Amino acid sequence: MTDEEIVTLVSHPRTQEEGFRQLVVKYQKRLYSLVRGRVSSHEDADDILQNTFIKIFRHIKGYEGRSELFTWMYRIACNEVINYQKSTSRIKTVELENHDTRPAEAYLNTDNLAASLEMVVTGLPERQQMVFRMRYFDELSYKQMAEMLQLTEGALKASFHHAVKKIEEEFRAKQIL
After folding, report:
1. With contact defined as beta carbons under 8 Å apart, do 19 and 11 qualify?
2. Which of 11, 37, 93, 147 has the most CB atoms within 10 Å of its CB?
3. Which domains does the chain carry?
4. A GO biological process this protein is involved in (predicted)?
């Protein structure tokens, strides 16, 4: 089923439920993969994905078709991840301050380069983190990111460049590279 057919079904009250079911079937795996790549647990990814689909359902009538349907949903999912990370970052900070006495080096000096990269990326400013993930992990073009985030390609390139430099610096400082 095409995106246009799905949007048409969702837009009509009598076919709305079937249209939304088709939308979930078509995009659930892609959106889950996107979300799961940004959070540490399956349960958190499921919660975020559920919130994403709720927002999609509530706002699908506002979808104007100026971008691809997945691009529009991708943006909603990214915003939900950011909201989740903001809400949990306060909790994690308190937990680390109160309970964890290991130095940061204990986390970075692991054999698992992917885990080390994730830790460093999580410490980047929000925009750099999002741009790095979209470019590096999701392999999106700057043009696609510009459309999703409503930023210029130049601003995105600069954010990605700064993110890469910070990651390299952190890896060098922790002797990971």
Report:
1. yes
2. 147
3. 1-88 (1.10.1740.10), 102-177 (1.10.10.10)
4. DNA-templated transcription initiation
Sign of CA dihedral 129, 132, 138, 140: positive
> 109 falls in which pLDDT band (50, 70, 90)?
very low
| Cα separation values, 77 from 28, 55, 139, Å | 11, 9, 16
Which range (6-10, 27-31, 149-153) has the least confidence? 149-153
Other CB atoms within a 10 A radius of the CB of residue 115 amount to 13
Please tell me the distance from the alpha carbon of residue 26 to that of residue 46, in angstroms, as a whole number: 16
The rounded distance, in Å, linking the Cα atoms of 169 and 161 is 12
Alpha-carbon distances, residue 148 vs 13, 52, 65, 91, 113 (angstroms): 28, 15, 13, 29, 29
**How far is it, in rounded angstroms, from Cα 126 to Cα 132?**
10
Copy the structure tokens of residue 143: 């043009």
Instruction: Tell me 15's DSSP state.
Output: T
Judge whether residue 34 has pLDDT over 70: yes
